[in-house]
Amino acid sequence: QVQLVESGGGLVQAGDSLKLSCVVSGRTFDVYKMAWFRQAPGKDRDFVASITKSGDSTDYADSVKGRFTISRDSAKMTVDLEMNGLKPEDTAIYYCGVFSYGMANYKYGQGTQVTVSS
Fold first, then answer.
1. Dihedral of the CA atoms 69, 74, 76, 78 (nearest 10)?
2. Would the CA dihedral through 55, 60, 3, 112 be positive or negative?
3. Could you report the per-residue pLDDT of 21-67, keeping only the tens digit for each?
4. What is the DSSP string of 31-84?
């Protein structure tokens, strides 16, 4: 089993920056990809960004390209999301997720709330 714990959420104003962090523990040797997702009130959980455990490939949702940066430390098994130029529409619960070899879906953490006021 793998466990994920997110931190760093909060209330900020539009245009501010915020950094989310996630610590991954447990069965981590077969983790292939680490990612961030978000879920706004009344909406489905959406993909935000991902990075391979090796760090050689990243992917971003169009809505955050140029504003958010995902990074990871494979030795410490942490994945961060640096968010700049935050907008009210970025308000959501942000979930850290990992995808492991042999699994059908991502495993998620409990989430951390990000609220951006206008």
1. 30
2. positive
3. 999 999 888 999 999 999 999 999 999 999 999 999 999 999 999 99
4. EEEEEEEEE-TTS-EEEEEEEETTSS-EEE-TTTTTTEEEEEETTTTEEEEEE-
